[in-house]
Amino acid sequence: MIIEYAEKERTRKLYEEAFEDPKEFVDYYYSDKCLDNRMIVSFECGEVVSMLHLNPFSVNLCGTVVPSYYVVAVATKKNMRRRGQMTRVFDKTFELLEGEKIPFIFLLPVDESIYSWMGFEKICDFSKDRIPSYDEIRKKYDIYCVRDDDYIRRMNKEDELRKLDMGEVLPDNPVIMAKITNLDAFNAAAGMAFTDEKEALYWMKKKRIYICEEV
């Protein structure tokens, strides 16, 4: 059964099994970041065996602010892998977001090949060095996450954890991949008339993109 899940704490066991993030970061993630995120999960015998989290962000897309999601915590229990669980979770996610007219979503992969066959493509490198000045970001970049009060509070907390060596564990050379989830909504926001997702992603790649969000 694939559902959108509300009992979020019950996914923590799988998170801790799948990822090597410090306990302090996981405590922060589940007590704060999960307050307003969404989880798409697969159940077997009442247990969460596969999941992904959709963490909401408002993204400036070349002058138009659109709703988007950062896909994180993509995981399947070891004994349930290679059974199509994650494919079904992503299929449900794409169905939901297309219906909600979400233009695109993005993620930071451990391995690009895991996601490329689903239509995700690299659009930029992940920015390890955070730019503190929002005005500077808005002047220099075409695509970036909008900073509201919650964003700034979480950004400061994540910076604090990183300085204590308690931040999220990232790949050595992190990149950002994106997928178009509703082409009509993307075209409306971008003021374009792309006929397929690849064309839209190619256009994105040519823009100046700044993404430094860990989760």
Automatic annotation (TrEMBL):
What species was this sequence derived from? Butyrivibrio hungatei
Q: Which UniProt keywords apply?
A: Transferase
Annotated signal peptide: none
Query: One GO biological process from the UniProt record?
Result: aminoglycoside antibiotic catabolic process
Record's protein name: Acetyltransferase (GNAT) domain-containing protein
**Gene Ontology molecular function:** aminoglycoside N-acetyltransferase activity
Q: Per the database record, which ranges form the N-acetyltransferase domain? A: 1-144
